[in-house]
Amino acid sequence: HSRWGLNLRAVALSPRSAPLVGIDVNRVASLGFALGGALAVAGGVMISMYQTFSASYGVVFTMKALVVVIMGGVGNLLGALVAGLLLGLVETFVLVYVDPGLTLAATYLLFLMVLLWRPEGIFARRGK
């Protein structure tokens, strides 16, 4: 809800109309791209501390991110946070008490159960 956030949303939704209200589209888009790149770099640094790099390693994280976003309800930040925590707890439980090789299966099983129970996501409003 900050001025910069509103500018960023305005440029994302309507880049042609944003200059009409005094927004410098190139500056806002550049800062948004820089922020996204900085978050990607920070994530890569964190992962590189305990994993080795591989060309296909991002697929696992991308699929888990997609599962978390859909489970929480598309566009719902609280839902994504709760879904991510729930997914992490289930994966840790399966890793410790069942079998480390079944963590990905547990992820997709939980995802399937949520899709069958609430297809719009855990925290999404019904009737949208």
Structure explained in plain terms:
With 128 residues, the chain is an all-alpha fold. It is 68% helix and 0% strand. It contains five helices and no strands. Helix 3 packs parallel to helix 5 and helix 4 (77-98) packs across helix 5 (103-117). The longest helix is centred in the first third of the chain and has 24 residues, at 25-48. The protein is flat and about 60 Å long.
What labels would you give this structure?
128 residues; mainly alpha
Offer a quick outline of the entry.
This protein has 128 residues and is mostly helical.
In total, the number of strands is 0
Number of helices: 5
Please describe the biggest sheet, giving its number of strands, its sense, and whether it closes into a barrel: none
The helix content is: 55-70%
Low-confidence stretches: none
Question: How does the helix and strand content classify structurally?
Answer: mainly alpha
Shape: flat
Question: SSE layout and pairings?
Answer:
Elements: H1 3-13, H2 25-48, H3 58-72, H4 77-98, H5 103-117
Helix pairs in contact: 1-2, 3-4, 3-5, 4-5
